[in-house]
Amino acid sequence: MEAARPLIVLLCVSAYMVACVVVGLWALKRTKDAGDFFMAGRHLGAFVTAMAVFSSTLSGFGFVGGPGLVYRMGMSSMWMIVCISIGYAMSFFLLGKRLRIFAEVYNPLSLPDVVATRYASETTRLLISVAILCGVMAYLAAQILAMATVLQTLIIENTGLDTISIEATIAISCAVLVFYCVTGGIIASVYTDVFQGVIMIVAGVLVFITAANTVDGGFTEMSQTIMADDPEAMGPWGTLGMMGCLSWYFLFAFGGAGQPQVITKIMMNRRVTDARYILPISLFGYGVAALLWIGIGLVMRTLVLQGEHAELGKADDAAAEFLQAYAHPILAGVVFAALFAAIMSTADGFLNIGTAALIHDIPKALGRKSPKNELLWARVATVAVAVVAALFARYEPFGLVALLGKFGWGIFASAITPTVAIGFNWKRATALAANLSIICALVINIADLTLRGLGKTLPWAVDGSTLAFVVSLIVFFAVSFLSKPPSIPKDVETLIDL
C-alpha cells in the first residue's frame, strides 16, 4: 500500500475537490437572495451550527499553523488551545441568547447591522465594518497560506515535479476558494462544516494515536528528547516566555467573545434555545480535533532532533511532512481531504463576513443604498477580497500560518469584544465609547504590524494585539462612564435586559 500512497492521497484530495464543486452548485440553487448568501436564512440546526462554530476556528489555523507553532515554540501554543475553549464559553454566555433574539426581531444581514441598531449610530457601523474587513484579510490570508503550503508539499511529493513556488500554489488555492465561495455563499460553508467537522474529530484521534506510536516510548520520550535540546520548549511557557503566553491567554480567552466567525453563526441557528446544545458540541469537537495540533508538532520536532527526519524547510510543513511519511496512506488521504475541507469552509465564512462589510455595511454607513443587485455584487466583492488576502498572505514578518491567524484574531478581539460582548450586556455603553475603542484597536494593531515589518517587537514579548485589546477596553469603559448616559430605544433596552 505504501507504493500506492501518492495515488491514494491524490484520489482523496481530488474526491474532496469534486465534492466542493457539487456542494457549491447545490448551494447555488438554494441561495436566492442576500439573506441566504450572508445568513443562510437563519435555518440551521444545532448540530450544523456547532460543527460550523468549532471548525471555523480550528481550520488551517489549527491543522497547519498549530503543529508548526508547537514545532517552533513548544508548549507556548497550549495557551491558545485551552484559552480558545474559554472564549467559546464566554461567547455563548454573553451573546448566545441575546444576539439570536436581536436577529429574530431586526432581521439583520450582518453583525454591523445589529451593532448599528444597538448604538443607533452609523459611525459605529462604519468603524466595526472596517475592523471586520481588516481582521478578515489577516485570517483569510492565514487560510490561503495554509492551503498553499500543504498543496505545495502534495504536488512536489506526489507528482514528480521537482519544485513549485508558494506563489503558484497560493494562486491555485485562491482560484479554488473563489469558485467555491462565489457559488454557494455561507450555505456552502456551513453544510461543508458538518462533513469536515466530523472528519476533523476522527482524524484528531487517529493522528494523535499514530503520533504516539511513531516514536518508541511515546510522548514521554518526545518530552525528554525535546527537553534535552531546549528545556524551555517543554516548560509551561514554551520558548515564547511568561509575558508572551499570558498575553495569549488574555487575547484568546477574553477575545473569543469578539470573533465574528462565531458571532454570526450564533445568529444563524433555527431556535434561540439551541445555544445550550451548540456550546458543548462545539467544545467537544474542538478539544478532540486539537489533539492533532499537539501530536504532530511534538513528534516532528522529536524525529528531527533524533535524526530520523530531515530538518523542516518551514515549521508549517510539519503536518504535511508527518502525514506523507508516517501516517497510513488512507489516513493521510482522509486527513489531507479534511484539512482542505476545514480551510475551504472557514475561508468561505471569512470571505462572507468581509464581503458583507464591503457591499452591505460600509455603503449603508455612508448613507448610500446597497447595490441594486446585492447578491451579484456580493459575489464580485468576494473575488476582490480573496485576491487582496492572497497578496497579504506573503507578508513575511509573520513567518507562520498560526501567527498570521493570531493577528486576525487579535484585530477581532480588540475591536469587537468591547463593542459587542460588553455593549450588548451593559446599557451604560455609549456609541462614542464604542467608536473610540475601535479606533484605538485598529491604530495599535496597525502600528504593531508596521513594527513587525521593521523587524521589531514589543518588550518582554508582549503581544501587540493584546496591548490593543487592553487599551480598547480601558477606553470603552472610561468614555462610557464619563459620557452622558445614552438614550436607548425601549425595544433595544428590553432585549439587553433579557
Count of helix runs? 18
Instruction: State the major sheet.
Output: none
CATH class descriptor: Mainly Alpha
Gross CATH architecture? Up-down Bundle
Query: What is the helix/strand order?
Result: HHHHHHHHHHHHHHHHHH
**Strand-residue proportion:** under 5%
Question: What do these coordinates show?
Answer:
This protein has 498 residues and is mainly α. It has one domain (2-402): Sodium/glucose cotransporter (Up-down Bundle). It is 77% helix and 0% strand. It is globular, with a radius of gyration of 22 Å. 59% of the residues are buried. Mean pLDDT is 82; it is low at 36-41.
Notable traits:
single chain, 498 residues, mainly alpha, Sodium/glucose cotransporter, globular
Quick structural gist:
The protein is 77% helix and 0% strand.
Secondary-structure map with pairings?
Elements: H1 5-30, H2 34-39, H3 46-73, H4 78-106, H5 111-119, H6 122-159, H7 166-214, H8 218-229, H9 242-254, H10 260-266, H11 275-305, H12 318-325, H13 329-365, H14 374-392, H15 401-422, H16 431-453, H17 464-482, H18 490-496
